[in-house]
Design brief:
The structure holds two protein chains of two kinds. Chain A is α/β, with parallel strands linked by helices. Chain A folds into three domains: 28-92; 109-367, Aspartate Aminotransferase, domain 2; 370-464, Alpha-Beta Complex (Aspartate Aminotransferase, domain 1), CATH 3.90.1150. Chain A has 15 helices and eleven strands. In chain A, strand 10 (436-439) and strand 11 (442-448) form a beta hairpin. The N and C termini of chain A lie far apart (58 Å). Chain B starts with 11 loop residues before the first helix and ends with a helix. Classes of the chains: A alpha/beta, B alpha/beta. At the A-B interface, helix 1, helix 2, helix 3, helix 4 and helix 5 of A face helix 1, helix 2, helix 3, helix 4 and helix 5 of B.
């Protein structure tokens, strides 16, 4: 360990700026990186990496961090030949597990341009140009939801931080109005809410008022009202509704929930991390009715809005409430702050940040909003066709009634082990990445379609392997 | 019917955009020194850039031109050697280049099942950081978005472990001990977690001392005191708390010892100051941001735990569709902090570290420490300037005799406007002064001297 060496302040250092200079070696590495990137952009990955064990990785890659370095050329080769093949290309059109991702080439290209442009995107003063562009992309999302002109927010790392930041704003606003009286604070949500809502409550040390979903898995205004009335609703300050649940793809009764929130003075947060892209699709837009009355919502561009990891758009009806909750204070921050500038860091749990909204902005600016509507409608169409494919196979049953593009599938006669073995075989054969899920205690499988290049033929080929 | 896959196909136009984007990247990488640039008002930008979101799109080439010609010029270049405000960043060429690879690769860095290769490499970089601090081989963690989420995640783990060990909630509020000099994100973390901060007075240099911690705890800690937060390299003053003494107190009281080394942790690699961190090897968790003084691009914070299983118990998210990821003994970075989907954000740091080797990092960090010592001498040589702090690292707080708050603000604005430097005011003990932080190995003694001369 270097700490055991003698102090070397006065020793002559060859070139401490060497890592920061464009040397011939770096020029070569740059060309290697550009070649690799172009190949990767062109590729339509059909393969799947079978995850190797840590021991296999160690055997294949060895120790990569050394005193003298292995050189940029060798490190890039190691990545391209050994590490990248052991990582699943998430944009594969048959990656249908969890929530996939499908960045456009334009978004990826701009992510690269952004990487080459070191900037601090937390404040207007440091990066006015990027904040301006991010805000235009946020404006489009806000308009899709029907929030007023005064709405605003920022892009955060992911849905977990987005949901947490929104609920922290809600609690801060609640306390500013009602003070603290020692009553434990709670948020109302169903068991179908994303796992990050439960995590947010744990982090905040807040409680849950669990609402019973209806038969389709939705929270309804009536169930919310009944639950609050039955329990007294002490300390409930917010409702976390979902606009596209991860496991079932259903949208809560947002209008009914908004009524209850308005009547009872509760903050309405809508987690539309996955589903929010559907706001751009006329065929399903009415199912989101009521979202225009929310106090905050999130949607992840890295999901169904075709941006690279990681980027979640967080929007507030009254951004000043979020600023009151989240702005960090310090001598070097406060003394440098100027006027009423819009600082993205003031609206969520983060300070230093990459301009993570820009790849989404760039693709949206380049292609236009119409192309987004078409791409989202295209995936909805494929999901409807996939539904028909499931229904016409007598060995399969559809286990959910989706509003969007998640389909839960039961193979008649299969046990949990059958699903697991089938999933592993598909991955091993390089056919598809589809994993089991659990629904009401029963193991089955589930697909989520959000890549416009996933075709109904892709889905049919996968369903055929379940025969 | 319009083609819903048009944005996802690699067309001739995509090829033109690719060439333009790569040419932009190549030019930007070669630019040295990069112009500092500076902010515009919202109205100026609206006039120059206009509405960029339209139904039918601007086209990729036009959108890229808009960024390169208008928007990028309205952002301050953090890698300029005279960007000395806040905590700057100074990514190496290799780290920047590899960030391009990550951008092109669509890798999910949350689970071993999906990102084994990427996670293997990230963990090797984390291992080096853990070794620098002297944590055991069983230590581990993950790279998170930034220091705010890193500190919050560590303290959430600490609380979870505390409550799990007790089995029941103690009477009264839960508490964390910290000084006024801790980073603002610690205050944020406490608010988010809804716990109280037991304030510990610092010594004259801005350090937390063991005796002050002990007496604060004796006076004001309840049964719910579950952690102490020390800082190794405070942001405003650049000093390192008495980590060994604090570790003693934490061990005696059985409370979690977290070290925020977001800025300073890089100096663990520098022999000339390593002994000031003595005691960090006894921490339960610590963070260091590679995007600060370890020369990685934004945004990347390394979060390490002595006992990662405690973090997993606090942070692993559960859902039916996530079940296939659990169960095995594989390392899932998502299980150790407040995040789920994640970019493989540790890879640019790993790549540069692998390419150049740890020795190059040691030299680059020692060099910035040397320049900071020279800067101190430059300040002390000027009669109109006073150094207000006694830094362990590379932050210098400077008073210009006779200046008021407005003088500092005007001077700062003028420097930025002239493209000469980006330096902002700060507050030390209620007084507005200025402050520089040096983390860029290309920042020279002459850069500092030139800037100090403008205060004459």
């Amino acid at each position: 360990m270097s700490a055991e060496r003698e102090p070397s302040v006065d020793q002559t250092i060859a070139d401490p700026g060497a890592m920061h200079a464009v040397t011939p070696e770096i020029e070569r590495a740059a060309e290697g990186v550009f070649d690799y990137a172009r190949e990767r952009l062109h590729a339509r990955p059909r393969n799947f990496a079978v995850a190797r064990t840590p021991a296999e990785m160690q055997a294949a890659a060895g120790d990569t961090v050394t005193e003298d370095g292995i050189g940029a050329d060798a490190a890039l080769r190691l990545f391209a030949e050994t590490l990248a093949p052991a990582s699943v290309p998430v944009e594969n059109t048959r990656f249908l597990a969890f929530i996939p991702t499908a960045p456009t080439p334009a978004a990826k290209l701009f992510d690269m341009a952004l990487s080459a442009t070191p900037m601090y995107a937390g404040s207007w003063r440091s990066s006015a140009g990027s904040v301006y562009a991010e805000n235009q992309a946020l404006r489009w999302l806000s308009d899709l939801a029907g929030l007023p002109e005064t709405a605003g927010g920022c892009f955060v790392q992911g849905g977990t931080v987005g949901n947490l930041s929104a609920l922290v704003s809600a609690r801060h606003a609640h306390r500013a109005e009602h003070g603290r009286n020692g009553t434990p604070l709670r948020v109302a949500a169903t068991g179908q809410a994303h796992s990050s809502v439960a995590q947010a409550l744990d982090v905040m040390d807040a409680g849950l008022l669990e609402i019973e979903p209806d038969a389709r898995g939705r929270m309804t205004g009536a169930a919310l009202e009944d639950a609050i009335a039955a329990d007294g609703g002490d300390g409930v300050f917010a409702v976390a509704a979902t606009g596209g649940t991860t496991n079932l793809g259903v949208i809560d009764d947002l209008a009914g929930i908004a009524d209850v929130c308005a009547r009872r003075g509760l903050w309405l947060h809508v987690d539309a991390a996955y589903g929010g892209a559907g706001l751009a699709a006329p065929s399903v837009r009415p199912r989101f009715d009521g979202i225009e009355r929310c106090d905050s919502f999130i949607v992840d561009p890295h999901k169904w809005l075709f941006a690279p990891f990681d980027s979640c758009a967080l929007l507030y009806r009254n951004p000043e409430l979020a600023q009151a909750a989240h702005r960090q204070h310090a001598g070097y921050l406060d003394a440098a702050r100027v006027g009423a500038d819009w600082n993205p860091s003031d609206y969520a749990i983060h300070l230093t940040r990459r301009a993570r909204g820009l790849p989404f902005w760039f693709s949206l600016a380049a292609h236009g909003t119409r192309a987004y509507t078409e791409a989202v409608e295209g995936t909805l169409r494929v999901a409807r066709e996939a539904r028909a494919e499931i229904e016409r196979r007598d060995y399969l049953e559809l286990a959910n009634d989706t509003d969007l593009t998640v389909l839960c599938i039961r193979r008649v006669g299969w046990t949990a082990d059958d699903y697991r073995a089938w999933s592993a075989r598909n991955l091993e054969d390089g056919l598809a990445l589809v994993t089991p899920t659990e629904l009401d205690g029963e193991i089955m499988t589930r697909i989520c379609i959000l890549n416009p290049r996933t075709s109904v033929e892709d889905v049919a080929a996968i369903l055929d392997t379940m025969a | 019917m319009p083609d819903p896959t048009s944005m996802h196909r690699y067309t001739d136009e995509t090829e033109r955009v690719a060439q333009a984007a790569l040419a932009y990247a190549r030019d930007r990488l070669r630019l040295h020194p990069v112009p500092l640039d500076g902010p515009r008002t919202p109205d100026e930008l609206r006039a120059a850039a206009g509405e960029t979101i339209t139904p039918f799109g601007l086209g990729g080439e036009a959108a890229l031109r808009l960024f390169a010609d208008v928007l990028a010029d309205a952002t301050v270049s953090i890698d300029n050697p005279r960007y000395l405000a806040f905590i700057p960043g100074a990514p190496t060429e290799s780290a920047t280049l590899f960030d391009l690879v990550v951008a092109a690769s669509a890798i999910y860095g949350g689970s071993w099942l999906e990102g084994a290769g990427a996670i293997y490499a990230e963990n090797q970089a984390l291992r080096w950081v853990a070794d620098l601090a002297g944590l055991p081989g069983s230590a581990g963690g993950c790279f998170v978005q930034g220091g705010t989420v890193g500190n919050l995640s560590a303290l959430v783990t600490a609380r979870h472990a505390f409550l799990a060990a007790r089995g029941e909630r103690p009477p009264g509020r839960l508490q964390v001990a910290a000084t006024d000099e801790v980073h603002s994100s610690i205050v944020t973390a406490a608010q988010v977690m809804d716990v109280d901060v037991v304030g510990v007075p610092t010594d004259d240099g801005g350090r937390m001392r063991a005796d002050a911690l002990e007496s604060s705890l004796a006076d004001r800690a309840g049964e719910g005191l579950f952690a102490a937060v020390a800082t190794a390299g405070t942001t405003n003053l650049g000093v390192i708390d008495d980590l060994a003494g604090i570790a003693d107190v934490c061990a005696r009281r059985g409370i979690w010892f977290h070290v925020d080394a977001a800025y300073g942790g890089a100096a663990l690699a520098a022999p000339s100051v390593r002994d000031r961190f003595a005691g960090i090897e006894r921490c339960d968790s610590f963070i260091v941001d590679p995007h600060k003084w370890l020369f990685a691009p934004f945004d990347c914070c390394a979060l390490l735990y002595r006992r990662p299983e405690l973090a997993r118990a606090a942070h692993a998210q559960h859902a039916g569709y996530l079940e296939p990821l659990q169960g095995g003994a594989e390392w899932n970075p998502s299980d150790y902090a407040i995040h789920l989907s994640r970019r493989a954000r540790g890879l640019p740091f790993w790549f540069s570290l692998a390419a150049h080797g740890t020795e190059a990092y040691r030299e680059a960090i020692e060099h910035t420490l040397t320049v900071a010592r020279q800067a101190r001498a430059e300040i002390e040589a000027r009669p109109h300037l006073e150094l207000l702090n006694d830094p362990d690292l590379t932050v210098l707080c400077i008073r210009r005799t006779g200046w008021g708050a407005d003088d500092y603000r005007d001077w700062s604005a003028r420097l930025l406007q002239e493209g000469a430097a980006f330096i902002t005011p700060t507050t030390v003990a209620g007084e507005v002064v200025t402050r520089i932080a040096i983390v860029n190995p290309r920042t020279t003694r002459e850069d500092i001297a030139d800037i100090l001369d403008t205060m004459a």
